[in-house]
Amino acid sequence: MATAPNFDGVWGTAPGLLALLTESNPQFQIHGLNALHQIIENEWPQIADNLQLIEELAANPNFIDRENAALLASKTYYHLGKLKKAVHYAILADSTFDSSSNDEFTRTVIAQTMKQYIRILNDLDYANRIGEDFKTKLSKIVDGILHNLILQKNYTQCLCLSIETRFDVYVKLSLQHQPSLVTQAIALAVNTVSDSKYRQSLLKTFVDFASDNCDKFQLSQLHHALRDPLRVAELLITLKNSSDSDNWLLAYQIAFELAENASQKFRQDVITNLNLEFRENETKEAIVKNLENILQRKILLDLYLQFLFKNNKTDIHIIVALKETLDNTKMLVHSSVIAAYSFMFAGTGDDNFYRNNTAWFSNGRKWAQFITIAAVGAIHIGHLKAALQVLQPFLSRGTPQYALGGGLYALGLIYANYSWEQKVLDIVLHAMENTSSFVIKHGGCLALGLIAMGSQNLKYYEHARGILMDESPEAGEAAGYAIGMIMLGCGPCQQLDELYTTASTSVHEKVTRGGAMGLALMMYGKEEQSETLIQNLLNCRIPLMRESAAWVTALAYVGTASNTALQRLLHLAVSDVNPDVRRAAVIGVGFVLSRSAKEVPSMVDLLAKSYHPHVRSGAALALGIACAGTGMQEAIAILEPLLEDLEDFVKQSAMIAMAMVLQQQSDTAVPYAKTFRKYLMKMINKKRNDLQVFGLCLAYGVLNAGGRNVVISCNSLRGENSVLATVGLALFCNYFYWQPLALMLPLAFHPTAVIGLDKNLQLPNWPILSKGNRKLYANPPSFESEKEVVTLQKAAQLSITKRFDGLRKKDAEEVESETADENQEPEEDEQDFDILDNPSRVTINQLKGINLKFCNDYRPITGEVFHGFVMLKEIDKQDDEEEEDDE
């Protein structure tokens, strides 16, 4: 029997073969198609000229080889570069398309098929347009692709694609064949899956695999992501009951991580479950007490306070210059300097300047006095042991209302996110219940919200709601903020509906504003669950409620980089008729992209050049929020022109944002840091209005925040979203309307500290080696050294005096040159390494150069060094030597 001729690579056969497709005999048509498949690599241009003929065969339901025709059409469109059409006909080719093939055509079509299928999952309108039949065929191809990957034992690629295409069957199959992939699977789910429901479903799937194939630290993070305090408590109990002391250290490390990032309610639930386990156990004190203290943040706050106090490098001359140069008779200016002072010393507990200048500090009147007293709380944030003693003069009976209100606010700042001290809560509640002063109620509500943040305690909610329903706008605004903080992240519920009704029907703008922001806080982290509320807010005619829609979007999707959220915010930023709504929408971009800082400059670049000043102001703050402490050149380039903006409030936002970006950036690492300090120094002596002064003072405060030992971020320095920091930053951004809210910013300060602890939670001798020149991480020069010095004219000298001085100088230089070689040593700053004590200040960029093995006595229990608390295990000398031999 004769074999069919091989047409592969033979030029000039296409016209004849294409002619066969016009024949009425199906056998001739089939032969033509098969032959064209063999020569398409070389003769696709001629085949493309007759593409319509091939498409007709593919669409003919009576043609028995229409799938083969569809495959030929797909290959032709592939060569033409029309990949969507290539995918379309590959799908029509059905089983004729071999997804297991490894040629370039197949790989390209598979990639485009996956892309199209993922778009169907994420774009409902597109999914509805293409129809169910097409979706079914597309799904069949995707299924075949994943099945082939399993057969090829390419489990990693199958896992990634099955997560992205939501084929749960293949997710499980990949993990069953290679359980060690669960670590990668968790990271993929957390960082790439935008649909919160599907993400939670995936994480639940991973739990069983993770129990045996993950380290316990990551397992705890998985349980936290699933909001399962019971599982976290069980894990801590298992570790703590272990005979291996390394497991005790790991339990402490998990507890510190939760103390940094988890909500107060979650931590309280973990503590409750721990106590239930040991309720009849007399050894509870020894086993659980340390874990309790860590989860309640007692140990964390105390150690951070010690670190910030010891390493405080704030230049007091800056505050002196602001105090003596600016017109402090104006209350806004006075409050601005106070805010700068509180930022510089926030968390250090060092209030000596305040105590030495009480006369000047007491110049504040009414709300300026309120801010002055509250600023003391910012300085003592986390100073739980001394809080009541420090604030006693402002909380005693008979204290004037503005001082008492400020004292309550200060108490809230000190005890923020810590509601385990009932005595403190009783002081706040008693003060609010026994007064008719709206100032005291205002300070009390802010304090109650801060202390009970995220507790979702209905008793405290009712207290705040009672004040919200009063006729006092000032107290009602603070009550709205308080409700949002207390019920933080509660999502859709009766309390949310009540606040929405009050905010949308109130005749007082302040009440509406407080309630509108409270709604955003209640939807914190709720992602898709917030959509119904957002649509209701967007349809509201009240601008403050539409502004709330922007804030709800920002906080519900904080750190997710959600396309849905970004598209909504960008649309609001350019379309809403109200300037405040537009500004809030642009600021929201910074929150949504807070974990994707590199994407923000390109996202807001055009907005920063908008004709609308409120949009420019919002773009500046969005950059500051997302890019704080990065020294990112792209962000600096956008902010620099805004420092010379014609609108004062835009210039104000730009100064604050630039200071955020340049936090802890040395002149060597980011040369513009010096330029910006010179700009601020000129602003001190320049004629300016109060808005510019406010921006100037806050910029100085941010640059020197926490004694130059902190950076601002919505996230912990390990990248996890921080409840306290996000709330602090969101409320700070509302200083436009109410200046006391500026004092919320220190809640977002994260100490750039590496604090090593041993099994007794003590600070061992653990020196660490930091690679890199210390100039890269150095603090800026002193304020006095950078001031412009006025040079006086030189006094006249006799010629003989000049000659004598010249000879004396020459002799001194000769002596100095003779001894220079003997005494010359390399400058300390020129070393390419630095040895740091425990605890130590380590900037974000510096962390990359930390050497784990410099100290032979201790190693981190997790095997890595990160900012915050690092539990250390003692190294057995013999084991250490064996490890070195293996290397």
From TrEMBL:
The keyword Repeat applies. GO terms for biological process: proteasome-mediated ubiquitin-dependent protein catabolic process; regulation of protein catabolic process. Residues 13-312 form the 26S proteasome non-ATPase regulatory subunit 1/RPN2 N-terminal domain. Pfam families: HEAT_2 (PF13646), RPN2_C (PF18004), RPN2_N (PF21505). GO terms for cellular component: nucleus; proteasome regulatory particle, base subcomplex; proteasome storage granule. GO terms for molecular function: enzyme regulator activity. The keyword Repeat applies. Residues 809-833 are annotated as: Disordered. This is Proteasome/cyclosome repeat family protein. The lineage of its organism: Eukaryota, Metamonada, Parabasalia, Tritrichomonadida, Tritrichomonadidae.
